[in-house]
Design goal:
Length: 283
Protein backbone atom coordinates (compact mmCIF):
# COMPACT_ATOMS: atom_id res chain seq x y z
CA UNK A 1 0.00 0.00 0.00
CA UNK A 2 1.34 3.42 -0.93
CA UNK A 3 2.35 5.54 2.05
CA UNK A 4 0.51 8.82 2.53
CA UNK A 5 3.12 11.42 3.40
CA UNK A 6 2.02 14.12 5.84
CA UNK A 7 3.57 17.54 6.34
CA UNK A 8 2.74 19.56 9.46
CA UNK A 9 3.20 23.33 9.14
CA UNK A 10 3.50 25.52 12.24
CA UNK A 11 1.74 28.79 11.39
CA UNK A 12 0.42 30.07 14.72
CA UNK A 13 3.29 32.38 15.67
CA UNK A 14 2.81 36.01 16.65
CA UNK A 15 5.33 37.56 14.15
CA UNK A 16 6.34 40.05 16.83
CA UNK A 17 9.57 41.25 15.20
CA UNK A 18 8.12 41.30 11.69
CA UNK A 19 5.23 43.59 12.60
CA UNK A 20 2.39 41.81 10.79
CA UNK A 21 1.26 38.20 10.49
CA UNK A 22 3.98 37.05 8.11
CA UNK A 23 2.42 33.59 7.70
CA UNK A 24 -0.12 35.21 5.35
CA UNK A 25 2.21 37.64 3.57
CA UNK A 26 2.54 36.82 -0.14
CA UNK A 27 5.71 37.04 -2.22
CA UNK A 28 7.09 36.64 -5.72
CA UNK A 29 5.55 36.45 -9.15
CA UNK A 30 3.16 33.72 -8.01
CA UNK A 31 1.84 35.81 -5.10
CA UNK A 32 2.10 32.91 -2.64
CA UNK A 33 2.95 32.70 1.03
CA UNK A 34 6.25 31.09 2.02
CA UNK A 35 4.37 28.07 3.35
CA UNK A 36 2.55 27.71 0.02
CA UNK A 37 5.86 27.61 -1.88
CA UNK A 38 6.98 24.85 0.51
CA UNK A 39 3.69 22.98 0.06
CA UNK A 40 4.07 22.95 -3.72
CA UNK A 41 7.65 21.64 -3.39
CA UNK A 42 6.34 19.03 -0.96
CA UNK A 43 3.63 17.91 -3.40
CA UNK A 44 6.27 17.49 -6.10
CA UNK A 45 8.24 15.01 -3.93
CA UNK A 46 5.26 12.96 -2.75
CA UNK A 47 3.53 14.67 0.17
CA UNK A 48 -0.26 14.51 -0.14
CA UNK A 49 -1.59 15.44 3.31
CA UNK A 50 -1.03 18.80 4.99
CA UNK A 51 -1.82 19.86 8.55
CA UNK A 52 -1.61 23.57 9.34
CA UNK A 53 -1.39 24.71 12.97
CA UNK A 54 -2.98 28.16 12.93
CA UNK A 55 -4.67 30.85 14.98
CA UNK A 56 -8.43 30.51 14.96
CA UNK A 57 -9.05 34.08 13.80
CA UNK A 58 -7.23 33.50 10.48
CA UNK A 59 -8.41 29.92 9.82
CA UNK A 60 -10.90 31.00 7.13
CA UNK A 61 -8.12 32.67 5.15
CA UNK A 62 -5.91 29.60 5.33
CA UNK A 63 -8.83 27.36 4.31
CA UNK A 64 -9.66 29.46 1.26
CA UNK A 65 -6.07 29.70 0.05
CA UNK A 66 -5.31 25.99 0.51
CA UNK A 67 -8.53 24.96 -1.20
CA UNK A 68 -7.45 26.95 -4.26
CA UNK A 69 -3.81 25.83 -4.11
CA UNK A 70 -3.76 22.08 -3.59
CA UNK A 71 -4.32 19.51 -6.36
CA UNK A 72 -7.30 17.15 -6.09
CA UNK A 73 -5.22 14.22 -4.77
CA UNK A 74 -4.18 16.18 -1.68
CA UNK A 75 -5.95 16.75 1.63
CA UNK A 76 -5.47 19.33 4.36
CA UNK A 77 -6.70 20.15 7.84
CA UNK A 78 -6.42 23.13 10.17
CA UNK A 79 -5.53 22.73 13.85
CA UNK A 80 -5.71 25.44 16.50
CA UNK A 81 -2.86 25.76 18.96
CA UNK A 82 -4.54 25.68 22.36
CA UNK A 83 -4.19 28.78 24.53
CA UNK A 84 -3.76 26.89 27.83
CA UNK A 85 -5.13 29.97 29.60
CA UNK A 86 -5.22 28.21 32.96
CA UNK A 87 -1.42 28.44 33.01
CA UNK A 88 -1.51 32.20 32.72
CA UNK A 89 -4.63 33.44 34.55
CA UNK A 90 -3.10 36.64 35.84
CA UNK A 91 -0.82 37.73 33.00
CA UNK A 92 -1.42 39.32 29.62
CA UNK A 93 0.16 36.55 27.57
CA UNK A 94 -0.89 36.66 23.90
CA UNK A 95 1.71 34.53 22.13
CA UNK A 96 1.54 30.72 21.79
CA UNK A 97 3.41 28.36 24.11
CA UNK A 98 6.21 27.43 21.70
CA UNK A 99 7.00 24.94 18.96
CA UNK A 100 6.90 21.84 21.15
CA UNK A 101 3.41 22.77 22.32
CA UNK A 102 2.39 23.56 18.73
CA UNK A 103 3.28 20.06 17.57
CA UNK A 104 1.39 18.53 20.50
CA UNK A 105 -1.68 20.43 19.30
CA UNK A 106 -1.63 18.32 16.12
CA UNK A 107 -1.28 14.97 17.89
CA UNK A 108 -4.82 13.75 17.21
CA UNK A 109 -4.61 14.65 13.51
CA UNK A 110 -1.34 12.87 12.72
CA UNK A 111 -1.15 9.28 11.58
CA UNK A 112 2.09 7.64 10.54
CA UNK A 113 5.40 9.30 9.72
CA UNK A 114 5.32 13.04 9.14
CA UNK A 115 7.45 16.05 8.37
CA UNK A 116 7.39 19.32 10.28
CA UNK A 117 8.14 22.85 9.04
CA UNK A 118 7.81 26.47 10.04
CA UNK A 119 5.40 28.54 7.95
CA UNK A 120 7.87 31.42 7.54
CA UNK A 121 10.98 29.52 6.35
CA UNK A 122 11.54 28.81 2.65
CA UNK A 123 13.28 25.43 2.62
CA UNK A 124 13.87 24.48 -1.00
CA UNK A 125 12.99 21.36 -2.96
CA UNK A 126 16.22 19.45 -2.26
CA UNK A 127 15.71 19.79 1.50
CA UNK A 128 12.06 18.76 1.42
CA UNK A 129 12.97 15.88 -0.91
CA UNK A 130 15.55 14.56 1.59
CA UNK A 131 12.88 14.73 4.27
CA UNK A 132 10.42 12.80 2.10
CA UNK A 133 12.99 10.10 1.35
CA UNK A 134 13.60 9.55 5.06
CA UNK A 135 9.90 9.37 5.91
CA UNK A 136 9.14 6.88 3.13
CA UNK A 137 11.53 4.30 4.58
CA UNK A 138 11.51 5.08 8.33
CA UNK A 139 10.12 2.37 10.63
CA UNK A 140 6.86 3.73 12.03
CA UNK A 141 7.58 2.06 15.38
CA UNK A 142 11.05 3.57 15.65
CA UNK A 143 12.24 6.51 17.73
CA UNK A 144 14.78 7.44 15.07
CA UNK A 145 13.92 10.90 13.74
CA UNK A 146 15.50 13.24 11.18
CA UNK A 147 16.53 16.85 10.73
CA UNK A 148 17.62 18.61 7.55
CA UNK A 149 20.40 21.04 8.46
CA UNK A 150 21.51 24.31 6.90
CA UNK A 151 24.82 26.15 7.03
CA UNK A 152 24.47 28.97 9.53
CA UNK A 153 26.11 31.49 7.20
CA UNK A 154 23.19 31.17 4.82
CA UNK A 155 20.51 31.69 7.47
CA UNK A 156 21.37 35.11 8.87
CA UNK A 157 19.55 38.41 8.41
CA UNK A 158 21.23 41.60 7.25
CA UNK A 159 18.65 43.57 9.21
CA UNK A 160 19.12 42.35 12.76
CA UNK A 161 20.10 39.48 15.00
CA UNK A 162 18.54 36.00 14.92
CA UNK A 163 18.32 32.96 17.18
CA UNK A 164 19.51 29.65 15.79
CA UNK A 165 19.54 26.04 17.01
CA UNK A 166 23.16 24.97 16.46
CA UNK A 167 23.70 21.25 15.92
CA UNK A 168 26.69 19.10 16.84
CA UNK A 169 26.98 16.06 14.57
CA UNK A 170 28.70 12.77 15.40
CA UNK A 171 30.86 10.70 13.09
CA UNK A 172 27.86 8.49 12.31
CA UNK A 173 25.92 11.49 10.99
CA UNK A 174 23.58 11.53 13.98
CA UNK A 175 22.76 14.55 16.07
CA UNK A 176 24.79 14.74 19.29
CA UNK A 177 23.19 17.84 20.75
CA UNK A 178 21.32 20.97 19.74
CA UNK A 179 21.83 24.30 21.51
CA UNK A 180 19.87 27.51 21.02
CA UNK A 181 22.02 30.62 20.61
CA UNK A 182 20.43 34.06 20.70
CA UNK A 183 21.23 37.35 18.97
CA UNK A 184 23.50 35.87 16.29
CA UNK A 185 24.91 38.39 13.84
CA UNK A 186 27.72 38.72 11.31
CA UNK A 187 30.23 41.50 11.82
CA UNK A 188 33.20 40.09 9.98
CA UNK A 189 32.72 36.92 12.03
CA UNK A 190 29.52 35.09 12.92
CA UNK A 191 28.94 35.27 16.67
CA UNK A 192 26.18 35.15 19.27
CA UNK A 193 25.47 37.54 22.12
CA UNK A 194 27.58 35.48 24.52
CA UNK A 195 30.62 35.74 22.23
CA UNK A 196 30.44 32.22 20.79
CA UNK A 197 31.88 32.19 17.25
CA UNK A 198 30.68 29.97 14.42
CA UNK A 199 32.16 28.88 11.10
CA UNK A 200 30.02 29.63 8.05
CA UNK A 201 29.44 25.88 7.55
CA UNK A 202 28.20 25.19 11.10
CA UNK A 203 24.92 23.29 10.76
CA UNK A 204 21.75 24.70 12.28
CA UNK A 205 18.22 23.40 12.52
CA UNK A 206 15.53 25.50 10.88
CA UNK A 207 12.78 23.20 12.20
CA UNK A 208 12.70 20.94 9.17
CA UNK A 209 12.10 17.69 11.04
CA UNK A 210 11.04 14.15 10.22
CA UNK A 211 9.21 12.24 12.95
CA UNK A 212 7.38 9.04 13.68
CA UNK A 213 4.43 9.28 16.06
CA UNK A 214 6.79 8.22 18.88
CA UNK A 215 7.63 11.91 19.25
CA UNK A 216 4.27 12.54 20.92
CA UNK A 217 4.98 10.36 23.97
CA UNK A 218 8.22 12.29 24.40
CA UNK A 219 6.45 15.64 24.16
CA UNK A 220 3.59 14.59 26.44
CA UNK A 221 6.05 13.69 29.18
CA UNK A 222 8.11 16.84 28.82
CA UNK A 223 5.07 19.14 28.57
CA UNK A 224 3.85 17.76 31.90
CA UNK A 225 7.23 18.62 33.41
CA UNK A 226 7.22 22.06 31.77
CA UNK A 227 3.89 23.12 33.23
CA UNK A 228 4.83 21.72 36.64
CA UNK A 229 8.05 23.76 36.76
CA UNK A 230 7.06 26.85 34.77
CA UNK A 231 8.76 29.93 36.22
CA UNK A 232 7.25 32.84 34.29
CA UNK A 233 3.98 32.00 32.48
CA UNK A 234 3.99 35.35 30.70
CA UNK A 235 7.08 34.51 28.61
CA UNK A 236 8.19 30.86 29.05
CA UNK A 237 7.87 28.61 25.98
CA UNK A 238 8.07 24.87 25.38
CA UNK A 239 10.57 24.59 22.53
CA UNK A 240 10.74 21.54 20.27
CA UNK A 241 14.56 21.57 19.85
CA UNK A 242 14.98 21.59 23.63
CA UNK A 243 12.59 18.65 23.96
CA UNK A 244 14.40 16.63 21.29
CA UNK A 245 17.78 17.41 22.82
CA UNK A 246 16.62 16.21 26.25
CA UNK A 247 15.12 13.05 24.74
CA UNK A 248 18.45 12.28 23.05
CA UNK A 249 20.32 12.77 26.34
CA UNK A 250 17.82 10.45 28.02
CA UNK A 251 18.43 7.84 25.26
CA UNK A 252 14.79 7.99 24.18
CA UNK A 253 15.45 8.89 20.53
CA UNK A 254 18.09 9.34 17.85
CA UNK A 255 18.17 11.97 15.12
CA UNK A 256 19.75 11.52 11.71
CA UNK A 257 20.99 14.77 10.16
CA UNK A 258 20.86 15.36 6.43
CA UNK A 259 22.68 18.22 4.74
CA UNK A 260 20.98 20.06 1.90
CA UNK A 261 22.12 22.05 -1.10
CA UNK A 262 18.94 24.11 -0.91
CA UNK A 263 19.21 27.81 -0.16
CA UNK A 264 17.21 28.82 2.90
CA UNK A 265 15.31 32.10 2.89
CA UNK A 266 13.20 33.66 5.61
CA UNK A 267 11.70 36.86 6.97
CA UNK A 268 12.53 37.74 10.55
CA UNK A 269 12.29 41.50 10.01
CA UNK A 270 10.14 43.51 7.60
CA UNK A 271 13.29 44.66 5.77
CA UNK A 272 14.03 41.01 4.91
CA UNK A 273 11.17 41.11 2.42
CA UNK A 274 13.32 42.66 -0.33
CA UNK A 275 15.88 39.86 -0.23
CA UNK A 276 13.19 37.19 -0.32
CA UNK A 277 11.41 38.88 -3.23
CA UNK A 278 14.67 39.08 -5.21
CA UNK A 279 15.40 35.40 -4.50
CA UNK A 280 11.95 34.29 -5.66
CA UNK A 281 12.17 36.39 -8.81
CA UNK A 282 15.42 34.62 -9.73
CA UNK A 283 14.23 31.06 -8.92
Amino acid sequence: MKTCLTLVIMAAGSSFRYGTLKQLETFGKRNLTIAEYNVLDAVSVGFTNFIFIVREQVANTFHRRLTNLLPDNCTFSLIYQRSEKELCKYCNRTKPWGTGHALLSAKAAVQGNFGLTNADDFYGKDAIGKLANFLKTADTNSSIFANVGYKIGGTLSENGTVSRSVMSIGGDGNLVNIIEYKNISRNGEIHSEDGTKFDHDTLVSMNLWGFTTKIFAILDEQWAEFIKNISDPSVDEFYLPFAVDKAMRDKKCEVKVFKTISNWRGITYSQDRIGLENFLQEN
